[in-house]
Amino acid sequence: MPLKELNSMKHLRTVVLIGLFFCAAGILEAQTSSTIISFSVNMATNLANGSFNPPPPAGTGTDAAYVNGTFYGWSGAGLQLVQEGSSTIWTNSFNDTGDANGKVVSYRFNINGAYESTASWDNRAAQLPATSGASLLLPTPYYGDVGPGQVINVTFQVDMSEEIELGNFTPGVSQLDVRGSFNGWANAGDYLTNNPSIVVTNYPTGVIESNVYVGTFPITTGAEVPGVPATNAYMEWKTVEDPSGSWESPGPANAGDAGNRFWCNNTNQVLPVVSFGDLTYAPLANATLNVDMSGVIKYDSNYEPNSVTVWGTFNGWANGVQLTSHPAPNTNLFSAVISMPEGTAVIFQVRYTNTLVAANTPSQPWVYDYISDAVFNNNARRIVTLPITTTTLTTNLPTFYFLDLAPGDYLPQNTPVLFSVDMANAVDTNGYAFNPSSDALYVNGMFANGGGAPYPQAWYAWSGGINPVTAPSGYQMIRQGTTTIYTNTIIMPAGTPVALSYQYGMDPSSLNGGPLEDESPSGANHFRVVRTTALSTYAMPTDTFTNQPYVEPLFAPGNIYEFMGTLTGGNLTVGTPIGGTVPVSWLGRPGAHLQSASTLTGPWTDILATDGTTWTNGINTPNGLLSVTNWPTANGIKFFRLVKP
What we know:
The protein is mainly β and 645 residues long. The protein contains three helices and 48 strands.
């Protein structure tokens, strides 16, 4: 099967200190992307060995050849190919409007939906023209890259200017070798050497460098297919810094979906000059990075304060840079001066050590700023872009909270929360209708602590499959008499975020002892807020089992995990004065309270009694407790605002 692109529900946390910025998904196209791509494949080997038997006149069977890929959304078998005359070539053309011009299209051939292998194992790829409406005639490979070929010489050219500037590569000491499907992705001694005659002018700085490393090597073998690579076989490569062993990570405009550079024609060739990791040259700046760990102490008793480090592309993820704490009054503020390039996106991530994690996995003792980093997903990291200057830039980056959760974003005390869901006519994502006489129902969410994970948001494992997993105790929903309402009260420990994301899940016939993830697709969660901790139990509004979960407004100046926080989420309303009072209502939460003033310019007076840690007066709404009060008008005009210090 072809490799599929992984999508993430998270987004890059971005600090942009220049007027123009580019989002993580790519540059907004000024015009519709369009490329007329002509695909072709040589089926000679398969016709000869009988693995491809098309209808007459080419054969006597019913086999069909297809090409599928990002251009076709990997839908079905893909685009059917047709025989070119009486030759062994099967071909067809397609207008690719799904892949952006100037970027890369990924594709693979198949017979009746059974995909080929390639010389590099991975999907084939091609660079699309930058101009919309242009045509692209792709080279014709043998199906599966199995066929006759020849040895070719390929010249690789890599500009190391930025790596030298970053201190990751030292000319005369460090070495650069090229690895790929043609040498088993191993260090085969294919080293590049500096060619000072190749001069590169780096824009927009205008700095002239001669740091291009060059090497020409015979390509005598592939990887998946033994022997000399077949004509137009798909070959992949990257360069690696030695002795550090740091692999480059090419950008998406120059790499296939496996993240590797590529070529796919079998002629002697000189590949264009590329920058190591596609990092263009930029001068270094001294940037002070600041992270506030005050929230961490609310939930992680195993947090080691002196273990806070930052990792990132500024040093090739080679090691963590130690952050040091500030003196009083905020000893939970940690900082470090980082040398990072100007004018290019720098991705980074803060980590700290948890003693229990360190005991279980000494080589990976860290807790990460946003989700486990096991997949090395840049969508779960932060990014900063510094402006290009003519002199050395020294700047102090804005402070952020670890996980973007401030101390006031956590419950200050253990809080019982009542969940309630109406299962009337409930049908899951598989079309299964809930049967209250035999089925069980569970709730799962970021408050479940994932079996002891050192995060304030961690779901327990869903059940189902060959080896179903039972749910931890305390998360099964209980039917109320003979009604369709199911409830459960769960005590949220102090340190749980005030905003809760969750889903319900069925256990058909109560066979698994735990829920299926069948209420809605992964990531489409209910999102509700504990608006007061002063009640004996905070009752959530009754949910409906559905694949369209309800999302409550949340007043928060930053992001609370699911990125639904907003400064306008408090729904503050001031009504018309009646009988000497004016009605004021708002969607409160612990850690937020009203302020009042006689003028919009202040001074503003805190009304601390309205904080969600103590306030209980209100009415139940679909958004939870709507706080209300009647404010005396005897002292004249009053303005109100909702604040979260």
